User: Which sequence fits this backbone?
């Protein structure tokens, strides 16, 4: 259910038929209570039409890599996506952080554009770009250019140049989303194509980071085939 709902939310698909979808799922599960998980997956995979379909890996990945998510989705959906990616990047060896609440609202995590929306102030276009950066206005809103920072740090970063922003992020951010995929190359990235990864932040790095984060997201919210491949624990076997 999580995969179905999140994939549709990221693709910005309508939820107006969900009352019928959930009714059908309850009916499918009630007919096969012993294998309700299989029944629900089968029912979801059979949903057809714009208002009901379960987005494929290709559809999901394409939107994650290419769409200006920040301007096309509700902010809370973008936050859910970034927070889930942060969780996925953590391991048993990672310090556990608690999102501040109440009196610490200044430390609340907010969405940050690494290459700023007003990039023209301090971010010159690539030297070999014949369009002089005209494609950046949408690219800056894509997943590969977004991270999370505190509400206090966000306005400080503003439109500052990359060298300064890199320093501030390095000194103040504790997130794997920032240190593991932004200040350092994402796992599996072809470093030879970039030289010193952290020396700049440009279109090529945004696309590479976006592709890496999209792959993580596909794993967090799996497809029908991947869900079916997950072993199901038999309750009778105990813990």
Assistant:
């Amino acid at each position: 259910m999580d995969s179905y709902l999140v994939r549709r939310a990221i693709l910005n698909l309508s939820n107006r038929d969900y009352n019928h979808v959930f009714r059908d799922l309850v009916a499918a599960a009630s007919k096969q209570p012993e294998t309700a998980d299989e029944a629900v997956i089968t029912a979801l995979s059979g949903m057809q039409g714009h208002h009901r379909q379960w987005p494929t890996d290709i559809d999901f990945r394409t939107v994650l890599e290419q769409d200006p998510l920040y301007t096309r989705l509700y902010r809370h959906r973008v936050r859910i996506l970034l927070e889930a990616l942060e969780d996925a990047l953590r391991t048993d060896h990672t310090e556990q952080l608690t999102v501040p609440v109440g009196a610490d609202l200044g430390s609340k995590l907010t969405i940050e554009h690494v290459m700023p929306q007003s990039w023209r102030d301090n971010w010159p276009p690539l030297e070999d770009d014949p369009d002089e950066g005209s494609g950046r206005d949408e690219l800056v809103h894509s997943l590969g250019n977004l991270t999370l920072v505190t509400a206090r740090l966000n306005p400080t970063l503003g439109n500052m140049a990359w060298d300064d922003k890199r320093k501030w992020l390095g000194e103040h951010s504790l997130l794997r989303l920032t240190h593991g995929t932004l200040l350092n190359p994402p796992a599996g990235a072809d470093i030879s194509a970039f030289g010193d990864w952290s020396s700049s932040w440009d279109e090529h790095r945004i696309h590479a980071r976006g592709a890496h984060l999209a792959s993580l997201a596909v794993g967090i919210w799996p497809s029908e085939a991947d869900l079916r491949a997950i072993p199901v624990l038999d309750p009778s076997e105990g813990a």
